[in-house]
Every structure is written in structure tokens, then in C-alpha cells.
Structures
1.
Amino acid sequence: MNQNDTSAQIAGNPCAESVPEKGKKDTLILAVESSCDETAAAVVKNGREVLSNVIYSQIDIHTMYGGVVPEIASRKHIEKIDPVVASALREAGVKKEELSAVAVTAGPGLVGSLLVGVAYAKAYAYAAGLPIIGVHHIEGHIAANYIESKELEPPFLCLVVSGGHTELVVVEDYGKFRLIGTTHDDAAGEAFDKVARAIGLGYPGGPKVDRCARAGGRKDAIAFPRGHVDGNDFDFSFSGLKSAVLNYLNSCAMKQGGPVKDLREKREGDADFDPDALIDEETGVTVADVAASFQEAVVDVLVTHTIEAAKSLGIKKVAMAGGVAANGALRERMRCDCEKEGLKLFYPSPVLCTDNAAMIGCAAYYDYLEGKCHGLDLNAVPGLGLGQKL
Amino acid sequence: MYILAIESSGNVASAAVAEDSKILAEYTVNIGKTHSQTLLPMIDRVLTDAEMSVNDVSAIAVSRGPGSFTGLRIGSATAKGLAASAGIPIADVPTLEALAVGVGNAGGRLICPVIDARRNEVYTALYEEVLPDNVENPEDSTYKGKASQSVSDESDDKAGGKKSACTASGLLRQIGEERALSMEALLEKLMTMNRDVVFVGDALRIHKERIKSVGRDRFTIAPLSAWDLRAGCVATVGLNMLKEGKSIESSDHTPVYLRLSSAERERLEQGKTIE
């Protein structure tokens, strides 16, 4: 295909003509999300009303491998995409003919996983004569807040925290974002996964560390470092914290007469794993204490940075998004600190924090209103930057 | 009856619209661009040129593999999206068979498609033409004598000694199963079969000379024009599958990889060493 063909398709896209006059017809968007290990589809009405939100999670398969295996994820997506999309339409009671557009996560994410959703959604839209809208995954996560809180409107500050992201974003308007802080190494969720693995809790780390910490862990038992990045107060770093946890575990294990590696191997996948099994004889610290203290260090940095950013920018509304935003300790602490500072806090319910397609449909709605649609050559962009044009 | 065919299992991206006895439009590129960018615009182009829309076709034929994992999934996901949206079935065409069909008249030779599978292996299978006598009487003695060996000894045992069977399209007879194996192992098997063989497929770019030196006058190479699979061949096989009632629901189609993911393979290997 030469350039002319492609641009002709974009110009001839029905998107611009099909934008409804306000108040006349409902806008129904079929959305597809397959950026990592959930195959998801949803139907969203007028941007904020979720008619269906179907998620097929592959987590059981990937747990066996201690993390997401890209090739297995891609294979599962292609197996599940048909039934997931069919269920989303059926549960919503919406026929193909009633749809206004099809939306799909185009990036960032695992390229093989993204490609399944992108190819499927584009083909589905093409055969139905509908516009296709490629959506940034993180813009989707942020938009989950619109679904949860119908009154929320930009501008606001959003902390995006997931397995792949740790970002502070100023949402200036719908579809208009300014990145003010990001991680220099591990994402927050990644740090949770790595530490969970080290203390024998397994994958996925976030919920498992949270549960273990709640099982009697003392969050002040060990003073783990708070990562700081010179030159930008709103950037994050979690690799130092991760190393500190590993060093601590090593020193405990040495005292108990063996390298920590052996202890870890024993625990991996062990159903009878007892979180109290690893005890520092001198300090009496247990695995639950490690989990609680580590979690506290992550939460402390995330909350402090967010509050500081809101105060320095004079923003009164704060939101959270992404899988780690479902973490109980983070939600509690953020609520508490926002209240103290007179900031209004928004966060989605857990099902809208983790990957889902409803949030993609919501984000796409505002692009649809602006007439922002894509051509048949829309591609998956695994490293897509926030606000970057597709 | 019209069919829309898609091929994206390797380096080539190709789309075609065909009806019973002719290809109406076909578009093939081999330019190294990602299939995800090129495939749907190409589908739009062939449909436009044939003056029709997806709603005018009876089914989507897709090259189901084996081949590049990602390429196969782009083709499959595209076929599924089109089929689900238009409410039409899928003919999931064996990629190796479509390549074999592209050889045309094999003149009694075995047809051996070879697709580069990386890791020093090829994806391959063995086919022969459907001759009037072995259609009517597959157990015919002259036929049996010819196909006394298969690429895969194991599959022979499983198939209860059955040496070959008509493919779903009815266009060819397949001997043994689709497999991934080294070219040396394949040549060794073929040498024991005492048959003339014609090779086709993109792996010839790597193995052509070796095949010629091993097979002498018994192994021949198909013309270069048949080495890369085009959607027109996929359409031909797909149309015949439709006629045979062998189309499937979109949700029942998944690519045929012939290989596990490396993570699964390593896991199985580890399991074996523990045992």
C-alpha cells in the first residue's frame, strides 16, 4: 500500500460524519483490550455507562510460570477473543448494527498480545462499516475514574500504578495529558512481584503481599529506604528498595545457617507455605513483617509524591488508576492524606483498576466526540508513550 | 459463491477474492512491513477492486499454519474479526496443503512443501495428487505399494496402518502428519520411500542445493513462483473445503503452530528431568 492509499482511507473514515448531535442518539462503543494477560471486551454507552464488561483472565496459567509468558498470553488471546466479544455484546443486549464505533488498546503492552486485539477489532469494525479508535492503555486506566465517578471532570492529577507503569499525570482535559513524574527503573507493581517472589509468595505479587501484610505484619518492623530521584521530586525509583529487601532476606538467612535461595526454592508453589517460617532470630522479624514494611515503603513514596505534586501544582482533585490502585494499603493511606490536605480523591473499584475493556471504551468515547479515529493500517505500538499520536 | 482469502503465515502478506473457478482480485506484498499494518488495507483493496464488500462473501479462508506465530495470529485475528462481524464461517486452510496445491500438476510425484521453521527445522508434510483409482478405492493395491512409507512413523502407527487420506478440501491426499523436523531427517525419510518428490516452499531458499545433491534425479524443485504462498492458493483450497462442508465457526478456529511456546517446552523438559 502506498501512502496515498492510507491517507485516503483515513480521510474516508466514517468517524467524522458519524459523530452524533448531542442528545439525539446514544453512542455505543464496543471496546477490546488485550495488552497483557486479560482478554477483555465491553460495551460502553455514552462514555460512562458500562453495559457489559467481560474479562477472561489467564492468571492461572501464568502463575505456573511465575509471571506472564508473552507467547502463551498471545495464544490464549486468539482462543478467547471471539467468545469474549460475543459475551460482551450479548450481555449488553446490543446488536452490531446499533454500535457507533469499535475501540481497541493499541499500546503500550506486549506486542503479540496487543496485535490480536488490534487485528480483531480493526477487522470487526471494517466488516461492520464502523470507525476504529486506537486507545492508549494508560489513558484507559485513567478513564476508569470517569466510569466510577460520574461527576469527575478534568483537570485533575492522576497516579497511574500498575505492573508496567508508575506515572504521575496531569489530566488537563479529555485526551490531553502532561506527564510530570515516572519511574526510573521498576514499576511499582513490578517491585511487588519481585519481592513477593523473593519471600515465597509467588505471582501476582500485589494482592499476595497485601494479604500477607494484613496477616499481622508490622509496617514499621524494618526501615526500608524510600526511593528518591535527584532532579525531579515527582519521579520514582524502586530498584533500591527491592535490593534492600533482598539484602535483608539474605542477612536473615545467613543467621539461620543457609543462603536465602534455599528457603525461596522450598516455598515456591508450596501450598502449605507458612509466612512466619522465615524469622530473624535477633529481631524476631517474620515474612509478614517484611511484606508489611516493604509495602509501607512503596505506599509512602507513592502517596507523598502525589500529595506534593498536587500541592505544588495547585490541583485540588486527585485520582488513582491501574492494578496497584486496588491495593488496600495504598487506598487507605491516600484517602487519609488527601483528607488531611483538603484534596478530593477518586479511585475506581478494583475490577476497573485492573485491566478491562470498559475503561478503553470510555477513553475512546472522548476521542470519538473529537472525531479522532484511525485508519485500517492502525498498528500495535508496544512502547507507545502517553499522549503520543497513533 | 465468493470467498475472501488471507495469507500472513510468513514474510508474505496476501489477500484475494475468488469465486468457484477464478480469482477475481489478489494482492501480495513481501516488503518486510508488519502484516498488522498491511493486511487489512490489502483486504479492502481486493474487495474494492472486485466491486464487493465483506457482506458479499460466503466465508473467510485463512492460512491456518504452521508458520510464524505472530504472522499466523494477525491472519487469524483478522479472519475472526471479519467472520464474527459479517456472521460468516471460516475455512481454516492448512498452509502446507495450500503450498502443495500451488505446485499444480505433480505428475505422480510426491509433493513436499517445506516452510522455514527456524532453529534448523522445516515445517513439512507429504501430499500426492488424488488420482481416479485412489479416490474410488483408497486401499487399492497399486496405490498402497507406492505410499509404503510416511514422513512420520508414529502417526502411521496411530492411524492404524492407514497410509494416506484425502485432505479436508479433497484436493490432495496427505501422507502422515504435518511436522517440524530438520531437513536432514526429512531427506533421510524421503530417500527410503523410493518415490520421486517435488519440493516447494520458502525453505528452498536455504536448502535447495542440499536437496538436489541428496536426491539426484529423483528430487525436483518447483518453480520459484510457487515458493511463497499467495492468497489465491488459500482461496482455492478454502472454496473446496466449503464445498466439502468443512467450514467452521469463527470461535472454533485457532492457528496450528505445531510447536509449543519455549516456556512450555522448557517446563516439560524440566518435568522430565525431575522424573
Note: Chain A is about 45% helix and 15% strand.
2.
Amino acid sequence: MEELLIKRRNFIKTGGLAAAALAINPFEAMAAGDVVKLTILHTNDVHSRVEPFPMDGSRNQGLGGVARRAALIKRIRAEEQNVLLLDAGDIFQGTPYFNLYGGEVEMKLMTAMGYDAATMGNHDFDNGLEGFHKQLPHANFPIICSNYDFSNTLLKGATQPYKIFKKQGLKIGVFGVGIELKGLVEENNYGDTVYLNPVLKANEIAALLKKDLDCDLVICLSHLGYKYASAKVSDQVLAAQTSNIDLIIGGHTHTFMDVPEDVKNLSGGITTINQVGFAGINLGRVDYYFEKYKGKRAKAGAPYLINDLEA
Amino acid sequence: MLSSTKVVKRLVSFVSLIYLLSAISCSSAYELVKAERIEYPVNVSIAVDSAVLKTYLPYKAGLDSQMNRVIGHSALAMSKKSSDTLPESLLSNFFADATLVQARKMDTAIDFAMPSTKGGIRVDLPKGPITVSNIFELMPFENELVVCTIKGTEAQRLLEFIAASKGQPVAGLRMKIKDKKPVDVVINGKAFDISRNYRVLTSDYVSNGGDNTLGFKDPVEKKVLGLKVRDALLNEVKDKQAEGKTITAQLDGRITY
């Protein structure tokens, strides 16, 4: 916690927070049509937790539940004009809903909640590529995977390397990175999927989105995991070794973060990492305010004002 | 507004506009000026969305009829968190002992068991009534139990893996971890002997190197028992119930450091 605070202050100090000069009163500016607000809602590692945890005295009893999450999302959508709802993988496995229905329920519910995109976690391979493929007709949202090459598999063409969402003139680029499957997932279950270096791939796609395709914001859905004691690639490694990613929505390590972490990325800008535990116990939200630029704009990656709020 | 929006940290700084105008690029019409972050707990304070509830109710009905059956009782609560963080825990000991007891009904010559990694134990097991669903959530994977005959040198690698990862769910095995290495290893009551083969109960997932487990490369023999790990656990709960007993577990110092 303390570390996070210090880190954030450092950003302010080193960067000078030029942007704040333009954000004196975003609400007034919004009324004038100069500021556009984007709301990102996110989950990770929901693991087939359709109903809240049972009331049996265990640690998470009574928490989570899709019907509540749906109500919360609906409320936020009614209040906000520009909402993106995203998931960082491990949709499948963890309750008998998956054992009995193979993921159909999870996909139908995510569709009902209006998810805009999701990436794949290792447990989304638990019924094999075929098991995942079979549930895609129930998912009315794209599956975004940038570092799994499915060319020689059943999933060829079934996923997208990135997607650009347009909201009130804003362009938001979303891509997804997954964890190394070998040693984690049964070989039979991922078949001829080729795992590509997530840092290289992320740098390539984030640059494409930000520079060539003019995205105002780049979001990475990651199932790499927040951090490791070893040198294994994690969201912290990814954030520090890439440029052009504004937000990493993480997963895999089931990390309950007190507040999002802001990492200084390769080009000195801010890459924020957030992860909200698992099982739909929490819903994460990041609001970004954009100012319409009249004339020349500051270079991408300039520091900006950051507030962490309490629900 | 959705929340009381208590601002815990508000960091504002003003810098000359000139700085801004001097940093030049022009790829987009918008510039990011501010971020606000918040996290919502999803709990009983939120009324449910009935449309979504209706979407899953037919599935729930089918599931409950199969899953809500009480098949036994537990004498105590066993937590996943302690199995993640301690060298042995009530839950990891129960998990490993139960699978070994059930597997030995099918194969009497098993030396020791590591039926799962810590990561494969998924949820707490509550005190009191145990339903089919509790066991499905504890062990959601379709993994099959296998008995691998491995050389002593491979068994050594497995023991080293267990030590390096600060303990794993085991039965029939006692060891101490010193400097991340296994010492004073006792298998099935006898000191570990690297010159002999061992027959180890595990899952197909673990034996294929799942969770980067070491020690099962090129086994002398790999025998599939035809019993899923989950079914072994279900059988153990049912057996205890039939005997009029509760399921339970003890910390017996099988792995210490």
C-alpha cells in the first residue's frame, strides 16, 4: 500500500501532471462537450461461479453471484454513456455448472450481462479446444487472444487478436495475452496451439493500436498473473517492459488488489494493473476522462490525474 | 451516484500549459486527462437482476437435483488458504489420505500418494453436512487417478519438487524441508531408498507434469486405476457416512520445515 502511494507520487513529480491543467473541472467540460468519459468494468477468474458462494461457514460464503453482478452493471450502464465490460479469463471451471453444462451457462450469462470482450485463461481449455469451441455459439461477444496462435487448430478464426471499440468518438483498442500452457494445461487440451512471447506480442499489438490505428486508449486483458517471486512473466513484467498499454486487466493469480498499481512503462508513461480477486466477488471499475484536443496534443503517455475511490 | 465516493487520495498538480503545448504529437483528437478507480463488492446488499436469474434457473434446477444431496458430514472446517500457504494442512491431508485409502482398495501396493498439487485444491470444505456439490467444487477437474512406478532417482526429483514448492498434498510420506531440500524422508514407514522403484498414486494431470511437477518423466509403468480423483473423494465421504462416522483430518507433521 505504502509502496503504491510512493510510486504514484513519483509519477506526479517526474511527469509534472501536465494534463491536470486541462482538467480543472471535468464536469463543466463534459457539459460543454469537451470531455468524454469512458467507464471500464471488469472481472477475472469468475470460474463458473454463477450463484453466490454457499452459506456454509466457509471464507467467501454469500459473496458473488451473477444476478447481483448483472444488477450492478445495469445500474452503472443507466448512469454512464460509454461503458465497456471486459473479462480476463478463466470463465470456466470451479462449480458443477461447468461439470454438468460445459460452459454454456457461463457464456449465456455473460452475453445477458452484455460483456464486450473476454480473453482465455488456462481453465478455459479444461474441456479441450473442442469444449471451448462448442460454447462459442452461446457467447455474443468476441474472444480476444493475441499470443495464442490457433492457426492449426479448431479455433482458427474463432478468436481475434484485438478489437477496436468506438465510444462517442473515442477509439479503445483491446487485446489479450494468455499464460504459457505447457506444464499447466494437459497437452491434449490445447493441441497444436502455439504460445507466443506475450511481451513481444503485447508491444507489437499495443504499438499497432496506439500509433497506427489511432486508439485513444489501449487495454490489455491478461491471464499472465499479477506477479511472481521468480522471473516468470507477469503483469508487472509486462507493464514495465512494454509501451503503449494504458490498462492491464489481470487475472490468474486471483489477486485482491487494494488499489490498482501504476507502473512506469518502457517509455516512461503509466501502465495501470488491476485485478479483482476471483469468482465475481468484486467488480472492478476504471473511469477515464478524455479531453478533446484543440490544436496539438501532448504526447501519448503523459501523466494524468489519478483518484482511487471507495465504494 | 453509485457510491459515497469517498476520495482517499486526490492528487492534483498544476503545470504550465506551455509544457503541454511543447510536447508534440498528433495522432488522436482526445487526450487522457484523468482516471478514477473504484471496486464494488458483489454481496447481499445488491438486489438481484431477475432476468439473469431466470436465465440460469432451469440449469440450477437440474444441477440441484444432482448436487445438493448430502452424502456425509465433516467434523471440522478445512481451509484452502492454509493448504496454499502451509507445508501441510487439514484440507491437503484429508484430500491425500482419502484418495490413498480409496485407491488402495484397487491397488494394495501403492507406496505413497500425491494426488494433486496445492493449486488443484480449489475451495474450503465446510464443517457439517457435505454435499456432492462441495466435493465437485473442491475437485472440479476430471482427472483420473494413476499409479506410476518410478525409479528412485525420479522419486528424488519428486521429493525435491515437493520441498522446493514448500509442501504438497501427500499421504504415506513424511519429510522435513531444510534449505528447500527434502531430508529425513520416510515412505510407508521406511527410510527413502534411491536405489529402488516406488509406486506413486497421483493424477494423470500431475503425472504429465501439470503445475510443473517433476519426477514422473518416463515412468517404468503407468497404471490408470479407472477412478477419478473426485470420485475417490466422493466415495470416502460416503463410506464414512455408511460407517456412521464423520470425515476429519489431523495435522500430523508429515511435512515440516
Note: Chain B has a mean pLDDT of 90.
